[in-house]
Amino acid sequence: MSRDHARPEVPSRRLMLKGAALATGALATMTGTAHAAPGHAAGRTAPYLNPLVRRRADPHITRHTDGHYYFTATVPEYDRIVLRRSRTLNGLAIAAESVIWRAHATGPMGAHIWAPELHRIGGKWYIYFASAPAEDVWAIRIWVLENANHDPFTGTWTERGQIRTAWETFSLDATTFKHRGTRYLVWAQHEPGMDNNTALWISQMDNPWTLTGRQVRLSTPEFDWECVGYKVNEGPYVLQRNGRIFLTYSASATDHHYCMGMLTADAGSDPMDARSWTKSPVPVFSSDDTTHQYGPGHNCFTVAEDGRSDVLVYHARPYKEITGDPLNDPNRHTRIQKLGWKADGTPDFGVPVADTVKEGV
Fold first, then answer.
1. Whole-number Å distance between alpha carbons of 316 and 321
2. Catalytic residue at 321?
3. Taking the model in full, what pTM does it have?
């Protein structure tokens, strides 16, 4: 892991001015063109700035009822949790970034601060994230922060502690969703005795930091594309549309083999019954040589400014070859693009769109 603890560089005046124009809709200055997903109008100028935020992996963007988009992600130093907000998606590119929590110097929550997600539950803000003790950096578990203030940039972030699962094993990438009045947590964890790194699990929640009842395995790496480098199912996220629950996840090592899979369940079924879910036998989103985007994954979904169009949020690198451990490479950039829909009501991910802004511009 990189241990450069310097604060992020202040964007150049040129970048800030360009970003401000983009944030207010002046898209004519952009020269890039998106590669449209199947069924989309090809050749149309991309509506979004890509990469949206450089060197921010495992991105999470949520649109709140106050009209703002809230953004958080993994920073390459793995040592803090950051927030941005903007009234537009493109505006997140130049929005001021605040550090709302830092890793502990010793003990629990001292290393590998990964994959934060910001959720509004019961009138409070919660951040789910993964971390390890400073003295045992691979003993990664899931932790929760809580803020009762209406503004997550102010108030106090209280450490609600570790989410206790069935085993004290490697666990990370928690996400939460509500379905038919019940709140669930989905996460990735290694099950003792299983020949994998992580599988996907689901449980009902008693409160935003406590699981209740049984814990059910939904997916384990089984296809070749899920087992390159490591046998991984991780980074789950839920989208509920068209009478179905779509659960996307990421698979394989975090280099160019990283890709996305998907589980699907009928909205009327029981999410806690593994038989309710059907797994796609092929990746739904993967590296693309034509657009030069590699290792797309750890996604979430949000909605466009029109309040209706779905938007795919993910990270990817602009190059294929990596020297050394991919976790030491900082250039997983946050990216966004419109999510399409097929005639059968399932998501049409297309391919990772090409860059619209060149490096250094």
1. 13
2. no
3. 0.88
